[in-house]
Amino acid sequence: MTTASVPEDATATLWSAELSRTLVPVEVVPLAGRPLAGRLASHRLGYVRISTLEAGAARVSRTAALIARAPLTEPQVGVGVQVSGRAVLEQDGRRAEVSEGGFVLYDTARPYSVDYPEGFRTHLFHLPRRSLGVPEHELRQVAGTAVTPAEGYGSVLVPFLNALAAFAHSYPAPVGDRLPGSVADMLSTLVAQLAAVHTAEVPGAPNEHLVRRVREHIDRNLADTELSPETIARAHHISVRYLHRLFEGEGVTVSRLIQRRRLDACARELGRRGRTAPTVSAVAQRWGFVNPAHFSRAFRAAYGVSPREWRALRTADTG
Question: What is the dihedral of CA 301, 305, 306, 307, to 10 degrees?
């Protein structure tokens, strides 16, 4: 379906009607002063509905009134994979910002809204909530959560969903009959993973395991100059605020812990003897220090001597 031949003042009405007929009843409101040219392509693989939307800036809302008008409609789980443009989904008090390549999970049984602030293209996957076989309370915990393709299960799920959407129209029947089960299995695994993280964020819940995972992540990624509280929080599906709260009881901030672990690695390497010992600046860069002057100051503050003096003292001690 396309709105190309529809008068501009009727596009929003047509777009609302087509999305409601193909997916679930929704309302579409174009953003002020912007055109709402749209295109919708939709296919079904067993119990999975796969749709690709392209349109201008708009808000798509599924209200409590729309849900109440069709009380017997089977609840669906939806996944929106953002191909281009941005999306901001709100459900159950959560606000998930999804950029290109990311995706968001939502539940059609409860109200939600999606703002597309600019022209966009997105793949939508709808399947019965019962097909996932996950407890309803877990789905409530994770609905409205955004996932990037670089974090955790997203690195596996996003390429799979993109390929599924690209070839949905061409799968032979034997393949198409098997794919819905694969989709449901992968999404149920995602829900379980996100729900476990959510539970860890509940005040008073055990967090030692999460702290240990964060420390291991830091040690594995010390050489990455982008390592920061923000990237660590994204990798573990938690907020930066909660990450800092985790480490309040550890007696060190996350940023200070990263610096301390980097300095420890540099100190160990500088203390080794060898015929072709690397330069101080090379060691600093290898462990994530971009600014040599900052590295020297931080090293002296931690060890009481400069990096070169440390090397000289350590190699002399072992000589």
Answer: -100
* Domain count within the chain: 2
- Kind of pairing between the strands at 58-62 and 48-55: unpaired
What range does the domain containing 280 cover? 208-317
51, 109: one domain: yes
Spatial CA neighbour of 113 closest among 82, 83, 144:
144
> Other CB atoms closer than 10 Å to residue 179's CB: what's the count?
18
**DSSP-H helix ranges across the chain:** 11-22, 64-69, 136-142, 154-166, 173-201, 208-220, 229-235, 240-248, 254-270, 280-286, 292-303, 307-317
Dihedrals φ, ψ of 291, to 5°? Answer: -105, 115
Check which CATH number belongs to the domain holding 296 and give it. 1.10.10.60
Q: What is the pLDDT of residues 275-286, one digit of tens each?
A: 567 889 999 999
Mean pLDDT of the chain: 85
Q: Angle of helix 173-201 relative to helix 154-166, nearest 10 degrees?
A: 150
Give the type of residue at 258: I
Q: What Å distances lie between residue 188 and 66, 162, 316, CA to CA?
A: 27, 18, 59
| CB-based contact 63:116 (threshold 8 Å) | no
Percent of the chain clearing pLDDT 70 (strictly above):
90
Task: Answer yes or no: are the C-beta atoms of 66 and 25 closer than 8 Å.
Answer: yes
Q: What is the DSSP string of 119-131?
A: -EEEEEEEEEGGG
Looking at residue 318, its pLDDT comes to 47
**Residue 94 identity:** R
Supply the pTM of this predicted model: 0.62
> Which CATH number fits the domain that encloses residue 178?
2.60.120.10
Taking the C-alpha atoms of residue 143 and residue 91, their distance in angstroms, rounded to an integer, is 7
Residue 245 tokens, joined: 């709260």
Q: Which residues contact 107 (CB under 8 A, 6 or more apart)?
A: 75, 76, 77, 78, 91, 129, 139, 140, 143
